[in-house]
Design brief:
The protein has 13 helices and 27 strands. By secondary structure, it is of the alpha/beta class. Strand 8 (165-167), helix 7 (175-187) and strand 9 form a beta-alpha-beta unit. The relative contact order is 0.09. Belongs to the ATP-dependent AMP-binding enzyme family.
Length: 459
């Protein structure tokens, strides 16, 4: 069933229930249903229907979701674009993707009878861009069933229901936040969608929210704000990167249950940790870790109903398939057997080859984040004439002065193997991030190689 049809059902059952709370105000389910129907009639009148690809670029998250669900209702595939792209970047992306229509202003509502959907579970029902940091982003497309059939499993794992208020504090162009908002509406909950990280209004949002979707980087700010201002928050759903072990304990102290998951835009959900015992396969997911002879780590391969169809317009990327339905994006893990915990070790394309050793950046980052004064840290490889690459750490300092290099190296000597220890150390005022809030590792490496003056080398 299209999510739009589920919204119509909620509008019939609970018309005055708040559906969306955005920067411009609140919208009930009845109001949202009317907006979706009016926009769907407009799209149909322009010949946009089943199988069409609609590129949607709207800054207001409520207008964006209304347009996305209108496209969903008429059977088109909404392609969610980043409204922050400048004209040149937008033109470059659109020239490479064969869209049938571009929606850059909210579709006008047109009067008429309700739009009836002839959509199928196998239809392409959602497309968004993976969070590439450099070059042209890749548009990932998925079927309706691969998107919506996972909703009930997340409901059960996270305890999300129609009486919840779900905070989605990030840009909906990110698959993590876009999924969270659409899932909340399908469930009949209220979705709070500020459209970006709400630094100034976080306390106000938390005073009404029972569930929040986050990347790990933002969890400390949520817990600190919750301690200061209070609120009914009971569950944090965490994705996008590995969750530090101590974060779950801090959340428990604040009365917040953490449900963390591992996945990718191309793979959707792969594994989930709902109680702190470790990552285990998400429902209906099979996992293999394929370890090459002589290696200690292997690639994560997945088979499930939640996989995407791939990239639009023949774009290339990390997604690979074999002939038996298994798919990978090159993520790395320790050897795995069914029934065990999946122990991820990072992204395969981010591994650093240094002096014959392979270093997983996330392993180094996990250790170095424990030092007081380190707000966040990213580890990349820097070219070296003899070693191939050397491990390089880039710190986002909490305040004006980062920890001394001596303190950093002392921690590294005590906790890291020789090959893992950074040879070069830099500090930046703030790390560039992807729309989902994750550090933009590729962009950082490129800026460092270009001699960006914003990088201060620690002596």
């Amino acid at each position: 069933m299209p999510v739009a049809a589920q919204v119509m059902r909620h509008a019939s059952d609970r018309p005055h229930r708040l559906a969306l709370c955005g920067p411009g105000g609140d919208l009930s389910y009845a109001g949202l249903a009317a907006g979706i129907n009016g926009a769907a009639r407009h799209l149909s009148g322009r010949g946009i229907g089943r199988g069409a690809l609609a590129a949607i670029s709207l800054a207001d998250p409520v207008a964006l979701l209304t347009a996305v669900l209108a496209a969903d209702l008429v059977g088109a595939t909404p392609l969610v674009c980043d409204p922050a792209w400048d004209r040149e970047q937008r033109a470059r992306v659109m020239d490479a993707v064969p869209v049938d229509t571009r929606i850059t202003v909210p579709p006008p509502g047109e009067e008429g009878p309700p739009v009836r959907s002839g959509a199928s579970p196998a239809d392409r029902a959602w497309a968004c861009f993976s969070s590439g940091s450099t070059g042209r982003p890749r548009a990932v497309v998925r079927t309706r069933a691969s998107w919506t059939a996972s909703f009930p499993y997340l409901d059960d794992l996270a305890g999300i229901g129609p009486d919840d208020v779900v905070l989605v504090p990030g840009p909906l162009v990110s698959s993590l936040y876009g999924f969270a908002a659409v899932h909340a509406l399908a469930t009949g909950a209220t979705a709070v969608v500020p459209g970006r990280w709400p630094s100034a209004s976080l306390a106000a949002h938390l005073r009404r929210s029972t569930v929040v979707h986050l990347v790990p980087h933002h969890l400390p700010a949520v817990l600190e704000t919750l301690r200061e201002s209070g609120g009914p928050l009971r569950t944090a759903v965490i994705g996008g990167a590995a969750l530090p072990v101590e974060s779950r304990a801090l959340a428990a102290d604040a009365g917040v249950r953490v449900v963390s998951y591992y996945g990718a835009t191309e793979l959707s959900f792969v594994a989930v940790d709902a109680d702190g015992s470790g990552l285990r396969p998400f429902p209906r997911v099979e996992i293999e870790v394929r370890v090459a002879p002589g290696q200690t780590l292997g690639e994560v391969w997945v088979r499930s109903p939640w996989l995407s169809e791939g990239y639009l317009a023949g774009a290339t990327g990390p997604l690979r398939r074999d002939g038996e339905g298994w798919t990978t994006v090159g993520d790395v893990a320790e050897p795995y057997r069914p029934g065990e915990v999946l122990r991820l070790r990072g992204r395969g394309d981010g591994a650093i080859q240094t002096g014959g050793a392979t270093v997983v950046p996330e392993d180094v980052e996990e250790v170095l984040r424990r030092l007081p004064g380190v707000g966040d840290i990213v580890v990349v490889g820097s070219p070296h004439p003899h070693l191939g690459s050397v491990v390089t750490a880039i710190l986002e300092a909490e305040g004006s002065s980062p920890p001394s290099r001596a303190a950093l190296e002392a921690l590294a000597r005590g906790r890291l193997d020789a090959a893992q220890r950074p040879r070069r150390w830099y500090a930046v005022q703030s790390l560039p991030r992807t729309p989902a809030g994750k550090p933009a590792r590729g962009l950082l490496a490129a800026r460092l190689a270009d001699g960006d003056p914003g990088f201060r080398r620690l002596a």
